[in-house]
Design brief:
Layout lengths: L2 E7 L3 E8 L2 E9 L9 E10 L4 E5 L6 E4 L40 E8 L8 E3 L3 E3 L3 E4 L5 E3 L6 H17 L3 H4 L2 E4 L8 H24 L4 E4 L4 H9 L4 E6 L2 H14 L1 H4 L2 E3 L6 H4 L2 H8 L3 E3 L5 E6 L3 E7 L9 H23 L3 E6 L6 H15 L6 E6 L5 E5 L6 H5 L15 H18 L4 E6 L1 H8 L3 H11 L2 E6 L8 E5 L1
Parallel strand pairs: 1-14, 11-12, 14-15, 18-19, 22-23
Antiparallel strand pairs: 1-2, 2-3, 4-5, 4-7, 4-13, 5-6, 7-8, 9-10, 10-12, 16-17, 17-18, 19-21, 20-21, 22-24
Helix pairs in contact: 4-5, 9-10, 12-13, 12-14
């Protein structure tokens, strides 16, 4: 599989696209004035403890207070993983009841926390007290002694080798400060030497001592450690052995990336190239078109079918339709082929749009059990390539497939778009006929409430045209009933649902 990473740098924002076999699979955008908080470590102050929710609100110096649940505070709780790549902890499931948060926190208390989820809509950031910092091959966890290996490394002998290397380095470490904490071995560490792993460990230990020193000197609230910018995180998290080329359209950032790459991963640094072309990098590879398509509600399939993707507050629904695809053999075969293509496309759209939370996929009903298994297997295989943690359920009683995906930041639509000021996010507005009837009812109410000679109606052009045309007979009857004349004036700036009635 051919993989390329494209990095587009502008003074306003950084955009990164992961392209596989010429098809964009993932888009990441970071704006310079609004960088994400995930991974940042803050010295915060507890401003409110909520026993009823077993949670606390913490001031970390951003616009909204952040949320810390007791399960993210308790030392025995399962560590929060940064992504599926690091979701390899064989942690023991704790059936112990979480302690009362009032025994752990009090208002005004200082606390060191890390952001695990960006503020989304009206919700503040989500925090954890189980801190971790990542390098190229390892993730260091402060409040753990566990050594885990990424689930993506399937060779059991390699998993054992990596565990043994980390354990040996910890045992040989003379400085007790260096032996504290636990590690997760990331996917990129597969087949790397003990020397490279040891180098990563030393880097993480130095970084952690710097964080501890900064904590002692910092005021409250303040940022103790800031996660790398997007273009550097790409080298650390996205670049792997399958990547053949990393193109950057900025010479200044190119120099930074090469320096960063040589320091942490020389084999990756050799893949970095400058794109000098006059035609914009994202236009050349069709990324701009893919971003535009990822903001559309309907996604066409090559067969002629299509997906309809509707994000809501609670979940995202994906509806599969055959559309123009009529097949060649029989109905069951047509449905099967459409669902197979939809499964692969759905997984790709989830990554492209950065959808998170609960995702419900409504495939076309299939009677053949083997067809159902194949469609689920196709969807599961496509989701396995997603770096975010995902979980796929079987088909429910209603024939729906449930997918959950870890949400850490805003979706592409939330990042690039604002809610519609006309419909306020409803996705529809009242018809001209409906508003026209509302105007007629309001005229009757105003006529009874005010003494006047005539009434002036201000409304949008579409509503005024309706009142003067299709509803003109009702207007004439109303004028006769209230004994007053009615004037109409179209206002070009009025939205369709907006109108005003002025007694004159």
């Amino acid at each position: 599989m051919s993989r390329e990473i494209l990095i587009n740098i502008t003074p306003m924002e950084t955009r990164v696209a992961l392209v596989e076999n010429g098809v964009p699979q993932e888009i990441s955008i970071e704006r310079n004035q609004k960088r994400g908080l995930v991974g940042n470590i803050y010295l915060g102050k507890v401003v409110r403890v909520l026993p009823g929710m077993q949670a606390a609100f913490v001031d970390i110096g951003v616009e909204r207070t952040a949320f810390l649940h007791v399960d993210d505070l308790h030392a025995d709780t399962k560590s929060q993983n940064q992504d599926k790549d690091a979701a390899a902890l064989d942690t023991k499931s704790s059936d112990n009841k979480s302690p009362d948060i009032r025994t752990l926190l009090r208002e005004g208390q200082k606390i060191l926390v890390q952001v695990i989820k960006d503020p989304i809509n009206s919700k503040g950031a989500r925090l954890t007290a189980q801190l971790s910092v990542a390098a190229r091959y390892l993730v260091y966890m402060d409040k753990s002694t566990h050594i885990g290996v990424s689930q993506r490394i399937e060779d059991e002998q390699e998993r054992e080798r990596l565990r043994d290397v980390i354990a040996a380095v910890i045992d040989e470490t003379q400085d007790p400060e260096d032996s504290s904490g636990g590690y997760i071995v990331r996917t990129a560490a597969e087949a790397v030497t003990a020397t490279e792993l040891h180098s990563d460990m030393r880097f993480l230990q130095r970084l952690w001592r710097h964080i501890e020193q900064s904590q002692a000197e910092a005021s409250v609230p303040s940022c103790i450690y800031e996660e790398l910018p997007l273009y550097k995180r790409v080298l650390r998290d996205m670049a792997c052995t399958q990547v053949e080329k990393i193109l950057v359209d900025s010479r200044e950032i190119l120099a930074e990336l090469v320096h960063f790459g040589n320091k942490f991963s020389p084999e990756i640094a050799r893949l970095i190239e400058h794109y000098p072309g006059e035609r914009p990098l994202f236009y050349l590879h069709g990324i701009e078109d893919e971003i535009a398509k990822a903001l559309q509600r309907s996604v066409p399939l090559k067969s002629g079918g299509h997906l309809v993707i509707d994000p809501t507050e609670a979940m995202t629904t994906v509806d599969v339709n055959t559309g123009a695809f009529v097949g060649h053999r029989n109905l069951e075969e047509t449905i099967y082929k459409t669902n197979l293509e939809a499964a692969a496309t759905t997984a790709r759209q989830i990554r492209m749009r950065n959808l998170g939370g609960i995702i419900i996929v409504d495939f076309i009903d299939m009677q053949n059990l083997e067809h159902r298994r194949q469609v689920l297997r196709t969807l599961g295989k496509a989701l396995d390539r997603d770096p975010a943690k995902t979980k796929l359920s079987g088909v429910t009683e209603l024939g729906l497939v449930q997918v959950t995906r870890k949400r850490t930041s805003e979706s592409l639509e939330q990042l690039l778009c604002d809610g519609c000021p006309t419909c306020h996010g409803r996705g529809s507005i009242k018809s001209a006929e409906t508003v026209s009837y509302e105007v007629l009812r309001e005229i009757l109410r105003v006529a009874r409430a005010y003494e006047c000679d005539q009434l002036r109606v201000l409304a949008s052009t579409a509503v005024i045209e309706r009142l003067l045309d299709e509803d003109s007979a009702q207007v004439a009857d109303l004028e006769e009933f209230i004994g007053r004349t009615i004037q109409f004036r179209a206002e070009a700036l009025f939205a369709r649902e907006q109108f005003d009635i002025i007694p004159v």
